[in-house]
Amino acid sequence: MRKNSIRFEFSLASRFLTENRMQTFLIILGIAIGVSVMVFLSALIDGLQANLIEKTVGRSPHIVISSDENAAAEAVKSLNGNPVLVLDATRKTMRPMVEWRNITAGLTADQRIKTALPVVEGSGLIERGQISRAILLKGFDLNQADRIYNLTGSLVAGSPNLPDGAVLIGKDLAADLGVSVGEPITLELSGRDSLPVVVDGIFDLGVSAINQRWMVMDQRRAAALLGMGDRVNTIEVQVHDVLQADALAAEWSQRLPGLAVESWQESNASLLAGLRSQSSSSYTIQFFVMLAVILGVASVLAISAVQKSKQIGILKAMGIRTGSVSRVFMIQGLVLGTLGTLSGLGLGLLMSKAFIVLAKQDYTLLLKPMTTAIIVLSTIVAAVLAAYLPARQVSQIDPIEVIRNN
Amino acid sequence: MGITRDFGDKVKTRVLFGVDLEIRRGEFTSLIGASGSGKSTLLNIIGALDRPTEGKVIIDGTDLGTLDDDGLALFRNQTMGFIFQSHFLLPQFTVLENVMIPYLIYAGRATPTVKKRALDLLERVGLSHRRDYRANAISGGEQQRAAIARALINQPRMILADEPTGNLDTSNTENVFAMLREINREFKTSFIMVTHDRALAERTDRLLIMRDGQIVEDICHI
């Protein structure tokens, strides 16, 4: 039994589609508009989110590990089994960690973690002449720190070398104090005498709070000045996949009992809630757009089925199988879906480009390949599914009825 | 044999009452009857377009009752040709393509043999010069002739014609009838022609008269 009917089915489908060009054009346009909206919306939302996340965590640590204030002087296990004593702090800031070296090594060994930066910090006061400003003293290893903050790359003046006694300050602070590279300023820390330090470099990290308050110093020197001994206040961690930071933080929190492991997502809960609701609204809109596309295709093909019932009747009389006729309509769905989706993709890209040029926002649109592939595939599948009901309608056409009624 | 056909779910209407009929190979039979006599219904059942409620249809040794819907469709395609009162050509295809459609439905692509056969058939019905015209671009008489050529493309054993000349004027009617007789003689194709035209019917080999769902007269003219 010869069964090579697919070729004829395609031929019939294309003739049916081209017979009524306006109808075909309108439905393809409808699908294209739907797809372009989905593409543009995804790009917009994804771009916004990426931008917001970048602003939030671009130049700050993804995870911050510090001593848990509630764990009093208990013995807790560190990574290699040696007990770690959490000491009471004499200051109100975070209590220092002792086993930070092991912890840092352990963190660095984790493939998902880009950098683990031990940080010594404390508050103090800067004076120059009559002007005094409150500052946050940050002591870390500059090479390591660059991997999070890129201080070296953010210098607007001076050098990043930090020889003994040297500090880096932000451009806003420098402007406030009227100080430039090579000049000394006086540092005052509680419980110590005032200390002259030389400004070796001025940075711009893009965040005014940091540019106004930070004073960067070598880790050992800062620790000595703050009376920390061989301890650090926090370990700042950067991960490869920003969005996985909370999962990673949870995992490490288990492994480091007695320490607080906080991800950026925890510290920015309201931002995340905002991002999530943005995403859900976007998905909701896209769902309804897709629904409209399906209904459009289904109705056009249903009308076509009615219009063509005479021809289908005669084809059945001539021996075409019912399944074959149904397939003709599924093929029409496939062709409409494919053409509509591809044009929609082009249209969506055009809309995105136009938006970028005309709206002049400070973020760019982000078209993720995976998202695009999903939109394209699901629309084509939806169009084929939409053809299912008309296809069934067509399979029920009785050739005798058709012939008789003529 | 013993064909009964009932219609309707709520009110069962019996249209054919135990019709027994035997058609010989190469016979040109006409079927006459008033409206509602059941002649079209009988034709549909013989043509494997409809199934009888009771009774058997055996064509060339095959019992149609043993075939499923797809099997019946294939059987129809291979064994039957249909000519209706309206031509029912597909308007989006050319005359040549329309003639080949019964073949293309299953084969997809026309072999040179089939194409030649189609062209020969068009020649025979006098439509060679219209082969590449869209089906809706030729006259009514020409369309019916194209439909005749289409009915023959798969070299059917039997042709069923339901009022083939119903929409044609006198001269076209003569032409078409002559064509059908010629085909019948040359290819030995059996014909069953339903018609209102008594005069035409008398010129066939056998005349069946139907009334109220039964064959009441069976006249052989040979």
Q: How are the secondary structure elements laid out?
A:
The complex is a heterodimer of chains A (406) and B (222).
Chain A (H helix, E strand, L loop, with lengths): L5 H14 L1 H37 L5 E5 L7 E3 L5 E3 L14 H10 L3 E16 L2 E9 L2 H8 L5 E4 L7 E5 H7 L6 E5 L6 E9 L4 H6 E4 L1 H7 L8 E6 L5 H11 L3 E5 H4 L1 H39 L1 H9 L4 H38 L9 H18 L1 H8 L3 H6 L2
Helix pairs in contact in A: 1-12, 2-10, 2-12, 2-13, 10-12, 10-13, 10-14, 12-13, 12-14
Chain B lengths: L2 E5 L5 E7 L8 E6 L5 H8 L11 E2 L2 E2 L5 H11 E4 L11 H13 L4 H13 L15 H13 L5 E5 L7 H18 L2 E5 L3 H5 L3 E6 L2 E7 L2
Parallel strand pairs in B: 3-8, 3-9, 6-7, 7-8
Antiparallel strand pairs in B: 1-2, 4-5, 9-10
In a few lines, what is going on in this structure?
The complex is a heterodimer of chains A (406) and B (222). Chain A contains 15 helices and twelve strands.
Secondary-structure element pattern of chain B, one letter each: EEEHEEHEHHHEHEHEE
The secondary-structure class of chain B comes to alpha/beta
Distance between the termini of chain A: 32 Å
Task: Let me know the average pLDDT of chain B.
Answer: 83
What is the N-to-C order of secondary-structure elements of chain A (H for helix, E for strand)? Answer: HHEEEHEEHEEHEEHEHEHEHHHHHHH
Specify the overall morphology of chain A: elongated
Structural domain tally of chain B:
1
Strand adjacency order, main sheet of chain A: 4-5-10-7-9-8
- Please count the helical segments of chain B: 7
CATH architecture of chain B: 3-Layer(aba) Sandwich
